[in-house]
Amino acid sequence: MENVKVAIWGFGAMGSGMARMLLKKKGVDIVGVCDLHPERAGRSIYDVLGIERGEKPEVIINPNIDEVLTEKCCDICLCATDSFTKNAFPRLKKVLEKKINVISTAEEMAYPQAQNPEIAAELDKIAKENGVSILGTGINPGLIMDLLVVCLTGCMTDVDHIEAKRVNSLSPFGPAVMEEQGVGMKVDDFNRGVADGSLAGHVGFSESINMIADAIGWKVDKFEQQMAPIVTSVDRKSPFGFAAAGDVAGVNMTGQGYVDGQVKIDMIHPQQIEPEMEGTFTGDYITIKGTPEVNMSIKPEVDGGLGTIAMCVNMIPHVINADPGLKTMIDLPVPRAIMGDFRTFIKR
Amino acid sequence: MENVKVAIWGFGAMGSGMARMLLKKKGVDIVGVCDLHPERAGRSIYDVLGIERGEKPEVIINPNIDEVLTEKCCDICLCATDSFTKNAFPRLKKVLEKKINVISTAEEMAYPQAQNPEIAAELDKIAKENGVSILGTGINPGLIMDLLVVCLTGCMTDVDHIEAKRVNSLSPFGPAVMEEQGVGMKVDDFNRGVADGSLAGHVGFSESINMIADAIGWKVDKFEQQMAPIVTSVDRKSPFGFAAAGDVAGVNMTGQGYVDGQVKIDMIHPQQIEPEMEGTFTGDYITIKGTPEVNMSIKPEVDGGLGTIAMCVNMIPHVINADPGLKTMIDLPVPRAIMGDFRTFIKR
């Protein structure tokens, strides 16, 4: 059997991380990479990654996607270009129309039915017409605050209330994340950024809540989310961030899904630099009230960057094996690490 | 759409618990129950369960499976009759040949490929010939020490070593479990029981280890397990068990899966009455070394009885929806609680 052929669109932190992971695996080849960034376009991926090419075929980063992807040139394309479904749509459509399966890192694509049901239906239609499938995934949304919750409800006869809490550190992240999450801002500026929508915070609560609800058969009749500054009382410094005492060290996002007028799904997701400096310890926590109750914790939290990279790469076989159409994490078999030859995971 | 129709074979603690759960759900009917026990056969299930029948159709427990099940008389049969694949096989075959899907509680059926690959292949063939599917599941094997492990590896780029530990209390269980697990025995008698195979202990390590390994692409080249008495230093008393100081309060089972000559999967599963009396606190723990590391705990442990009941009932739609053949938990979408109408979970 031929190796599994993968293309990557977007060679930033996520796309290049996926390449790094794929290069260590058996039975899979990277056959093309598209990226517009002038520092990367035209260069060998091995050069950009700082990895010896060895026996592997050369891959030059090409800014023109139509040169990277021709019809059925590969089994799957990993699209690490966007956070929002609307922005990702034209790119995803282009790949599907070349009869290539897609995995998208766009947070909203983890459950596009939540906020863009028309686009979701359109993607499903295009995928089916072209005989391929498409999935959005990542660590969160994609696993920690949704699929893992769904999986744990599997051992329950009855569910009353769900709380998913992800307390993570922003310290490992770079300048772009510091800016997106408001690290180092004055509280007033932060609040203005929330009001005018320029601060994104975490994208994915609506997707996670709707994924859980649809999976277990609840109907969400209202969704709300809030974004508050985490104000530090001490100076905090991380490799790429600094928050002086009295300023913003991160963002505390909360969200609620209402079912029959009651809050049934609570999401709590504070992200900040150096959380330990004020006694906050990181972790992922799922508390499900019902029969029997389930109280899960993962300490420390699963690393967000590596987790997203792994989820996207590890789902490749499931997406290739799936029936044509738009898939979500609740439609496919459970994710799993791929320690053997990629080809043995593919059902031809 | 008609209600989903379920039959139950075996109306002990598990089978009757599934009936109790199903009676609270929408869009699903129990259409037949088979049980040989003279205290139950011939009686109404509502009478045995101590539940008001209300508007629901009468179901009389029938000791003759051929009267309970006629060809395609229901969508699925829950078989809660056995622990071992070899013993369950003739019963499972009978149900499949009536063109009815099956979920089995037999621990070994959670991954019959592990110890009975020929029977697994035979069941797969029979199921396909009859256009139906068959799954073995439960809380463990089925979720806690295997599927949940697999799911958590999904966020890892690389896995080095897996440890799954389930520390549970036997206090809620009845006299049969006390006997199976050796509670109250003298240490010498316990050791004789291990040697002559009359003490079963936990059934499922081989299944869990092989499920995990096959899921992530490891090849198990050796499997071992051990069974040691948990000797109490104080008198311990539970509703159905008693262990005097110096005697056996439960069983500590350990198992190892070797990959390339190294222990890669460790299973640790001490079960005892009143564990808190000597400072043991119950919980489910998964520790996966690799990138990134994952350290999960569920405290207290997920209730084994309710968990098994829920897993079997909650997997009904996935098994009905599956392609014909033998399925395992790693082939199907993630388990989930069913809080809505059962019919909405079925793809016709």
UniProtKB/TrEMBL annotation, chains A, B:
EC assignment: 1.17.1.8
SUPFAM superfamilies: NAD(P)-binding Rossmann-fold domains
Molecular function terms from GO: 4-hydroxy-tetrahydrodipicolinate reductase
Keyword Oxidoreductase: yes
Claim: Signal is one of the keywords in the record: no
Keywords per UniProt: Oxidoreductase
CDD domains cross-referenced by the UniProt entry: nat-AmDH_N_like (cd24146)
A Pfam family recorded for this sequence: DAP_DH_C
UniProt domain 2,4-diaminopentanoate dehydrogenase C-terminal: residue ranges: 143-347
Domain of life assignment: Bacteria
Protein name: 4-hydroxy-tetrahydrodipicolinate reductase
Organism: Clostridium punense
